[in-house]
Records
---
Amino acid sequence: MSAKEQQIENEEMIQEEVELEQPVEEVVGEDPLEEAIARVQELEAQLEQTMKKEQDLLLRTRAEIDNIRRRTEQDVEKAHKFALEKFSKDILNTIDNLERALATPANLEDESVKALFDGVELTLKELISTVARFGVEPVGIVGEVFNPELHQAISMQPMEGFEANQITVVLQKGYLLNGRVIRPAMVMVAA
């Protein structure tokens, strides 16, 4: 080694010794343990928030499932209850025709006409009792108070023996299916 290299090496060693002798400056800031504790608390708070959100989501999901189940049950109940609505509307025409047949004047002294008349009457009674078993009931009776939800007023005219808004004439019976109007009664109302 040359003298110059020796001198550079000595200077470097002296500088290292000086650096080692200088006191190490303390790290300004928090203790690493305190930082770790703060971080743990922060993570616990986040975990608690996440758990609350999950619990809320779970409750909302359960409520939505219950609502869907309830709606489905109501829809099925309505489907069962009102499945016969279209059929009932169609059968009402037959009932009307049988009632018209019984309302026409006939010579009941003739045995064949009387037997036919009795047969139509029995058929009408049986048909009415059959539809009644399935929840179809007639509305619109003379003397009843007019109800716009059940009756359709064709005309209003003063009539003796009837109060205002009382049904005086039933032109066509109305019918309900399990409480729902499937055909309103066409009536005349006293004024």
---
Amino acid sequence: MDRQRRQLLLKNSRLYLCTDARTDRGDLREFLHACYEGGADIIQLRDKKIEARAEIGALETLAEVAAEHGKLFAANDRADVALLVDADVFHTGQKDLTTQQARRVLGPEVLLGRSNNSVAQFAESIADPELDYAVIGPVWPTPTKPGRPAVGLPVVTECAEVAGNKTWFAIGGVNAATAPKVVDAGARRIVVVRALTEAADPVAAARKLRKILEK
């Protein structure tokens, strides 16, 4: 998939899922299909508990499923792994590779995104011409980011003003119950984890979130 197609899919995206490799459940492929079918636009594999070879295998599965659905998939943190699997999206945190370093490894075709924990960081990311999207959060405290203070809904509103028409997502404690509050605060795109990874019916859960975002 070329950069132009990736950019179009990103622009039209609403629901971004971050999941581990589901090693304990052994249902990664089925789970990924369900989430894309339900309305996930981007799925990122983020699993700190597995080694590089296992991560590459899981990302190859994700790449296959994403291609079947015509959707985007993302790798996290490791540019070497992202390069090997030809990831559509490479996502970094504040202490990971700079955008210039990521571009040097991955080239111009990949989409780049970055997590931010304050309005200042978010503004810097939005202003970076090499970044394709920015993420703000956690909006609420979440066990996926232990010890990281929540930014709160007022920051989401500030970020909406800073971003203008640039692509950005809100993350952290976002689920079917809280998503309407995030939308009211100004976000049109969200990243979720447990809202889908712990759902008994991921298809239905994704559809419900999608409906909230499209109001």
